[in-house]
Design brief:
mainly beta, 4-stranded antiparallel sheet, 1 helix, globular
Length: 171
């Protein structure tokens, strides 16, 4: 049993199970459902569902806590350490992998690109033909690796319309 109510569960590219809880992420062995060594990862906030960079180095989650100054939680999986950088964004409602080193974040109807390099950088994306007020977004499922530098398509929903944006051509 967990000490608190879980907010999400995800299986990482490493085959381990990750459970999001307020102020904690548990990395579990899928055979025993027990935490791995160092697998109780403290975070500042309430992580949502984790997404993983294609290289398996980072797990990222939107912070569901409205009391935190950071909308994003970043976990370095090899060291079991977490960061909650101050991005100056309202709460993030969706995260999608863009490249090995960057993600797309939907916050207050606006799409942002968050580069994970040091220092972390945030820029608003202007997707051609997509009006403001995006309610949901998704990306195609290519894995950015080797010759494929980025996922190919972004899908954004605004009210009753869905938009497809070619990331290779429109950004």
């Amino acid at each position: 049993a967990m000490s608190q109510a879980a907010t999400a569960v995800t299986v990482g590219p490493n085959g381990l199970v990750y459970v999001s809880l307020p102020n904690e992420i548990l990395e579990l062995d899928p055979q025993t459902l027990q935490p791995t060594v160092g697998g109780k990862i403290s975070v500042s906030g309430t992580p949502g569902r984790l997404i993983f960079t294609p290289d398996g180095q980072f797990a990222l989650a939107a912070n569901q806590s409205t009391l935190s100054s950071s909308a994003l939680l970043i976990v370095t999986l090899t060291t079991h350490t977490a960061a909650s950088p101050s991005l100056g964004l309202p709460p993030i409602t969706s995260l999608q992998i863009l490249r090995t080193d960057s993600v797309l974040a939907l916050s207050a109807g606006t799409i942002y690109q968050v580069n994970l390099s040091n220092p972390i950088a945030v820029m608003q994306l202007e997707a051609s033909g997509v009006p403001p007020g995006v309610e949901a977004l998704a990306t195609s499922n290519e894995v950015p690796a080797g010759a494929v530098a980025t996922v190919q398509n972004l899908y954004a929903v605004n009210e009753r319309t869905i938009y497809q944006v070619s990331l290779a051509n429109d950004f």
